[in-house]
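name: query_chain
kind: protein
chains: 1
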Amino acid sequence: MTRQQRAELIDRRLAELYPAPPIPLVHRDAYTLLVAVLLSAQCTDKRVNEVTPALFARAGDPAAMAQVPVADIQAIVRPCGLAPQKAKAIRGLSEILMTQHGGAVPRGWAALEALPGVGHKTASVVMAQAFGEPAFPVDTHIHRLAQRWGLTDGRSVEQTERDLKKLFPIAHWNALHLRIIYYGREHCTARGCDGTVCALCRALFPQRRRPVETRR
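structure:
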């Protein structure tokens, strides 16, 4: 089976398994999604969803958040880890949204990535999930599975993103990245499957007998 054939099989099987994948981070608009994604760095979505109700009850829009002391934000988001950096970024980006973008999250890659604490992956999630723009955010689950499934050589997250975009139709990117995340959490976990256990790994590589080592 060629790399492209594997991609087509993955695309088809995951669409059957997750026809309408929900966005895992609870939010109500582009701003609350942006903040939630920022908080999810080195933190689980479950933990973020436990923390954000209190944060957004205190300040649910850029105007309100820009008035909250960084120390107060830090106290709320502490369970997410990296609290000093994340709190400073949340306050900083909220101020920039008010002074430079009329209080709205910008719908553009360069403007998003210029915000404090917002890298390419965070911008990709916001562009895909808030604005419906084609993007393929690559998190640890996607990076790991793309290697395991032979879709990339796995040298870097950036290379993985480029390889996946070449293999899958652009119209599928936004749903597919969520489908891969859910599959990686529920079926092809880091400990529960070594490339020989789950149904999709067995379908892709029926002759594989040895575990697959993945690069971080």
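note: Residues 30-129 form a domain with the Endonuclease III; domain 1 fold (CATH 1.10.340.30).
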